[in-house]
């Protein structure tokens, strides 16, 4: 789509380097920017540092895709399991978006896409923490869209179902596929295509929406 890409990661440097290589092999430009989205000081330092090093550039599109599962029933859930999941998905959304939002509003242009989940819409047993985090981001998406729409900034959410990624590698794919009308897990590229559309000029009149991509696994 012609965008230079900033790749954020917390610890998996090898996968980040592989992602950068894919972008560059496709003719694009990519840069790694490691920081923990759940650490407000790290977020501010990294993004302020980037802005100082790139005074003539701006971040036009933000995809809030950080998330982690730590599943168990609420009765057995520890405090750290609750806080870690919410810190990354919900607080991470807040810290990063707040830091980048001002420039978007000044330029009167911007795209924010929040990756949520079927869990945040439907709620899934064993994922009270994850469902709560993603449901909160859905509510924040709808509220923020109303705050910034008049300045040309759109805010939308994409809610994947079961997608073949590291996060779903430990799930029983065979039994879960039987529940999905499409009969398979989704591909990361399919989610990326939807996000790419929401980031484009063609989606300028779409904001405050939560779009499911789940193979027909309706809630």
Describe this structure in words.
This is 3-oxoacyl-(Acyl-carrier-protein) reductase. The model has no long low-confidence stretch (mean pLDDT 94). The radius of gyration is 17 Å and the shape is globular. It is an alpha/beta fold and 219 residues long. It has helices at residues 13-25, 40-53, 79-107, 118-122, 128-148, 173-177, 188-199, and strands at 5-7, 30-32, 61-64, 110-115, 153-160, 210-213. The protein has a domain at 64-213: 3-Layer(aba) Sandwich (Rossmann fold). The strands form two sheets. The protein has a four-stranded parallel beta sheet with strand order 3-4-5-6, with helices on both faces. The chain has a two-stranded parallel ribbon with strand order 1-2. α3 links the parallel β3 (61-64) and β4 (110-115). It contains seven helices and six strands. α3 (79-107) packs parallel to α5.
Descriptive terms for the model:
219 residues; Rossmann fold; four-stranded parallel β-sheet; two-stranded parallel ribbon; 7 helices; 6 strands
* Strands side by side in the biggest sheet: 3-4-5-6
H/E order of the elements? EHEHEHEHHEHHE
Helix/strand class: alpha/beta
Q: Average the pLDDT over all residues and give the rounded result.
A: 94
Write the CATH architecture name of one domain: 3-Layer(aba) Sandwich
Determine the CATH superfamily of one domain: NAD(P)-binding Rossmann-like Domain
């Amino acid at each position: 789509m012609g965008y230079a890409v900033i790749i954020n990661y917390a610890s998996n440097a090898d996968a980040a380097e592989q992602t950068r290589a894919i972008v560059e092999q496709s003719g694009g430009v990519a840069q790694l920017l490691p920081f923990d989205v759940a650490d407000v000081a790290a977020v501010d330092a990294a993004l302020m540092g980037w802005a100082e090093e790139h005074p003539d550039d701006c971040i036009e599109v933000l995809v809030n895709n950080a998330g982690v599962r730590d599943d168990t029933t609420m009765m057995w859930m520890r405090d750290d399991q609750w806080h870690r999941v919410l810190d990354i998905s919900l607080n991470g959304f807040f810290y990063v978006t707040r830091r980048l939002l001002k420039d978007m509003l000044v330029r009167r242009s911007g795209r924010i896409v929040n990756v949520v989940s079927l869990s945040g819409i439907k709620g899934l047993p064993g994922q009270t923490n994850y469902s709560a985090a993603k449901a909160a981001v859905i509510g924040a998406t709808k509220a923020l869209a109303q705050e910034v729409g008049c300045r040309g900034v759109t805010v939308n959410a994409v809610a994947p179902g079961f997608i073949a990624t590291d996060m779903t590698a430990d799930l029983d794919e065979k039994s879960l596929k039987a529940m999905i009308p499409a009969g398979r897990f989704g591909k990361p590229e399919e989610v990326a295509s939807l996000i790419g559309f929401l980031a484009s000029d063609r989606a300028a009149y779409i904001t405050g929406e939560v779009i499911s991509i789940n193979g027909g696994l309706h809630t």
